[in-house]
Write a structure and sequence with these properties.
Layout lengths: L11 H16 L12 E6 L5 H12 L3 E5 L13 H8 L5 E6 L4 H6 L6 E6 L5 H15 L6 E5 L6 H10 L6 E5 L8 H9 L5 E4 L2 H4 L5 E4 L10 H7 L7 H4 L7 E3 L20 H22 L9 H4 L2 E3 L18 E6 L4 E4 L10
Parallel strand pairs: 1-2, 1-3, 3-4, 5-6, 5-8, 6-7, 8-9
Antiparallel strand pairs: 10-11, 11-12
Bound molecules: N-carbamoyl-L-aspartate.
The site of N-carbamoyl-L-aspartate has 11 residues, from helix 2 and helix 6.
Length: 363
């Protein structure tokens, strides 16, 4: 049984294959029209979405399959107190594959413990968003012709922006990539992303607070929204919400072949006056999301075998019980699950929560 919880669940070769399939679907959609006939995709969205949910549903429909699901927690039994584990077990009896979005980090991992069909993480809190990353990689490949050797600027909320975390993990596997991390000090990339995927891999990077200072260096500028719903204090959000606004004037300082990406929705971080610039790739990017999700559904259904898959090997290895302090972690709401931490850095004795990657306060 294959699930997709983290972009690194896929090898570089598998991502290449998915990109090739997506390109083939774009060229010859008629070949795929009946590929998933009689199959059902369930979209379990406990958190708002436009692109991710609708592109998943459109993807399944264009493969000849059917879709069912809910688009808010209040219309599901979660509002009556049903656990994620139970919801997944039940829905696996109604559908062949499940795409799940949840505000709690690690919720899709819990779903894999009871589901007999593949689970796709469609965004878990501020943690990961692997199918957005597949979309982003397809976009970069189509627009720049390659994934290697690019200087990629990530700008905005790099702390809570789950798309940024998954994209950094994915791009860190391509040679010659360098990162420019542009954020206010309070919203820098968390250490669970920065260490394994940037520092430990010796990848060239710099951190900046000003977009103007670095925009001229970039091949790709990935803008993000300040993630209001993840802040514990509204005042903190209000203080940071207008940190970056990309305007036509700033675009004048950028390379002629820059591409501007954004997972969307945008609030005000890209002025609408930028939309007419041919370098603005974000609407094309949103469309590519449907094709890469078609490719992913095909792959996971082909590899589904009906076995309930407990924990990933990396998770069962060397874990200890410890209470997670992250209020956004699934362990804060799900009943009867063990709070497990795995050793991620032997030298410094650092353990991280297996669900949300929060560091344990063990001395
Ligand atoms: C992103 C998400 O949900 O993380 N949106 C998306 O899936 N395209 C980005 C965001 O909400 O800011």
């Amino acid at each position: 049984m294959r699930h997709l919880l983290d972009i690194l669940d896929l090898t570089v070769e598998e991502i290449e294959e998915l990109i090739a399939t997506a390109n083939d679907i774009i060229e010859s959609p008629e070949k795929y029209r009946d590929a998933c006939r009689y199959k059902k995709l369930a979209t379990l969205f406990f958190e708002p979405s436009t692109r991710t949910r609708l592109s998943f549903e459109a993807a399944m429909m264009e493969l000849g399959g059917n879709v069912l699901g809910f688009s808010e927690a209040s219309s599901s039994s979660a509002s009556k107190g049903e656990s994620v584990a139970d919801t997944a077990a039940i829905v696996a009896g109604y559908a062949d594959i499940i795409a799940m979005r949840h505000p709690k980090e690690g919720a899709p991992l819990i779903a894999t413990t009871t589901s007999s069909v593949p689970i796709i993480n469609a965004g878990d809190g501020g943690h990961h968003h692997p199918t957005q990353t597949l979309t982003d990689l397809l976009t970069i490949k189509r627009e720049k012709g390659k994934l290697e050797g690019l200087t990629v600027g990530l700008c905005g909320d790099l702390k809570f922006g789950r798309t940024v975390h998954s994209l950094i993990a994915a791009l860190s596997r391509y040679t010659g990539v360098s990162f420019v991390l542009i954020s206010p000090d309070e919203l820098r990339v968390p250490s669970y992303v920065k260490f394994p995927y940037i520092i430990d891999k010796g990848i060239t990077y710099r951190e900046a607070t000003s977009l103007d200072d670095v925009i001229a260096e970039l091949d790709v500028l990935y803008m993000t929204r300040i993630q209001r719903e993840r802040f514990l204090l509204e005042d903190e959000y209000l203080r940071l919400k207008d940190s970056y606004i990309l305007t036509p004037e700033k675009m004048e300082m950028a390379k002629k072949d820059l591409i501007v990406m954004h997972p969307l929705p945008r609030v005000n971080e890209i002025s609408t006056a930028v939309d007419a610039d041919p370098r603005a790739a974000y609407f094309r990017q949103a469309k590519y999301g449907k094709y890469i999700r078609m490719a992913l559904i095909l792959k996971l259904l082909a590899e589904a075998d009906g076995e309930v898959y407990r924990f990933r090997d990396s998770i069962t290895a060397k874990t200890i019980e410890h209470t997670c302090t992250n209020p956004r972690c699934i362990t804060s709401t799900e009943q009867d699950i063990k709070h497990l931490f795995r050793l991620t850095d032997k030298e410094n004795n650092i353990y991280r929560c297996v669900y949300c990657d929060t560091r344990a306060d063990i001395k």
